[in-house]
Please model this.
Amino acid sequence: MKPPLNPYIVLAVALILPGMGQVLNRQPVRGLIFVCFAILLGAFTLKTAAPEVSFVGKMAGALFVWAMAVFDAYKVARVRQAVWSHAQRQT
Model:
């Protein structure tokens, strides 16, 4: 059985590109869903935010989904690493 990627590598890639952490965890559909929701919520908050709101405020929806995608990718990578190391100790 091939060992999973280091969770810190998955974390670094997920911080740079939203949805890519899920792709590295072999969950491409989940990554695509995160990217689609980031785009949709980013567009929604961009259109509905008041004109005097900062750029970060206007992109709050996309940033929130991105943060959840990073957390999810790291969590799944850590679980995969723990399961793999446990299975290696059993054999």
Notes: Residues 3 and 84 are 7 Å apart (CA to CA). The mean pLDDT is 93.
